Amino acid sequence: MSTIRDKLREYRTAGYYTEFEYHWTMAVDLDRCTGCEACVVACQAENNLPIVGEKRMRQGREMKWIRIERYWDDSEYPNARLNFIPMLCQHCDEAPCEIACPVFATYHNQDGLNAQVYNRCIGTRTCAVYCPYEVRFFNWFTYTWDEPLEQQLNPDVTVREKGVMEKCTFCVQRINRAKDLARDEDRRVADGEAQPACAQACPTDAIVFGDRNDTDSAVSRKLEDPRAYEVLKELNTHPSVVYLKNARAPLAGEEDDGHHGDESESHASPVMWPDESSEAVA
Amino acid sequence: MSIGVFEAARPVIKGLIIAVLAIIGAYIGHWVHGATLNDYTPVQPIEFSHEVHAGENEIPCEYCHSWAGRSATAGVPSVETCVGCHKGLTEVRDKPDVVKLFDYWERGEGIPWVKVHDTPDFVHFRHKPHIRGGVECQTCHGPVEEMARVTRRVDLNENLRMPWCIDCHTEEDVANGRDCLTCHY
User: Fold this and answer.
1) B180/A176 touch (CB, cutoff 8 Å), yes or no
2) Cis peptide leading into A148, omega within 30 of 0?
3) Cβ atoms A54, A156 nearer than 8 A
């Protein structure tokens, strides 16, 4: 007889799903990212994110499912460069947050999505502590929208209340819609049919979203890029968001050795470089 | 070493407290159950009878609730839809509720219907996949064509509670039907 403990263990064993039906994946080309934050705004509008205000922001209670992190490199003024990394829920296949949740409010579904079920969440905030990417946000208050802004709330997305955790869903409402339309014609979701708000808003197409199981999809082609790397890969979280390393031409007077500066500089950079980067990047 | 009266009676007092709490709990439970698991028949602004329209006159559900097959919500027909038919039906023009309808029409107002079958905000029930899957409207809404005033019948749909959804999704072996993200997002 299998006890509930056995079932929990089975549920939490790595690879509960041996293969995903769809494996939704996002590729973020850091070379294309201009840091314009259009994705941030699009996400805010699509997913009913509240404006927490200046005071709450100072208290670290911001709500941004996707944010642009800025990293200055070590160079001095004329050569100083700014690196942007859009950071959002990585939808890790081995997600630390899923192990943490005592009530299974967060779990992995058959599409490779890291789900957050608001009505199941009891607000222990353990998942936010466990998340190495700091992309989970807690509703400290029931936020309200001033008139007439409540009219622009997205009816396809739950308006969260006080006491629940929330995070990027890869715009699951759009994925569900695309799957629904595909089901009408009895086919799989075609590449590009399901687009999260951030990917749709990105003016430089830095964010590409699609199904990794489909080898022809735009995102699969991006994954084959030698610049591709995963953030905090050493934690073995197996993220579903893959970044393409920022590989720019060297400035005048800089050595063209594949990356800017010398070896010590690249180590000092907070950007996680892939292991094989120095050979691969021209 | 003597034992005080209070200390000797401690198990009895403990038992009494538990008993009282149990009775209060039972009352509260009964009240909550009764308040939430009941048939629900709100009074509508117009005494629209599904018995007459869908029953006697056999108007198909999707003639008025035309969005059911192609969107998440089944939708309530506009006043225009009602008037479209009733303009030609002069023999019922003097009935008080039809007069009310034409009052709304002339004022250019919508009718503030009271929603009978409603799900919470965090449940994204979608009609379209259910219609596509061949679920009859009556499976969830009951025999509406026999209702003079629409009732949400607790014996049919358990007030649209999740176990009821899951039971059907399990029985019918719906693809990913038990995945939380199917409805909650």
Assistant:
1) no
2) yes
3) no
- CA atoms lying within 13 Å on the CB side of residue A97: 33
Q: What is the bridge-based pairing of β-strands A24-29 and A241-244? A: parallel
Nearest residue of chain B to residue A156 (CA atoms): B124
Nearest Cβ partner of A158 from B122, B176, B182?
A: B122
**Please, are residues A243 and A215 in contact by the beta-carbon 8 Å criterion?**
no
Is B81 within 8 Å of B7 (Cβ atoms)?
Answer: no
Q: How far apart are CA B3 and CA A227, in angstroms?
A: 81
List the Cα angle B29/B32/B34 in 5-degree steps: 105
Domain count, chain A: 1
Q: Per the structure block, which two tokens stand in for B144?
A: 């509406």
State percent of chain B over pLDDT 90: 48
How many Å from the N-terminal Cα to the C-terminal Cα in chain A? 59
CA dist B85 and A162 (Å) reads 47
B51-89 pLDDT, tens digit each: 999 999 999 999 999 999 889 999 899 999 999 999 988
- Give every CB contact of residue B131 below 8 A, 6+ residues apart in sequence: B68, B69
DSSP state of B113: P
pLDDT at A244: 93
Checking if the pLDDT of B1 tops 70, the result is: no
Domain that holds residue A139: 4-280
| Partners of residue B181 in chain A, C-beta under 8 Å | 109, 111, 113, 115, 117, 169, 172, 176
**CATH number for position A77:** 3.30.70.20
Chain A residues in contact with B72 by the CB 8 A cut-off are 156
Q: How far apart are CA A240 and CA A25, in angstroms?
A: 5
**Residues in Cβ contact with B166 at an 8 Å cutoff, skipping those fewer than 6 apart:** B178
- Find the mean pLDDT for residues B112-116: 91
| Cα B94 to Cα B82: distance, rounded to the nearest angstrom | 15
The answer, for B163 touching chain A at a CB cutoff of 8 Å, is no
Separation of CA B134 from chain center: 20
Interchain CB contacts (distance < 8 Å): A and B: 51
Test the B interface: residue of A46, A172, A174, A176 with most B CBs within 10 Å: A176
Q: Which residues in A lie closer than 8 A to residue B128 (C-beta atoms)?
A: 180
Whether residue B178 is predicted with pLDDT greater than 90 in this model: the reply is no
CA angle (A72, A74, A76) in 5-degree steps: 100
Tokens of A60: 């670290």
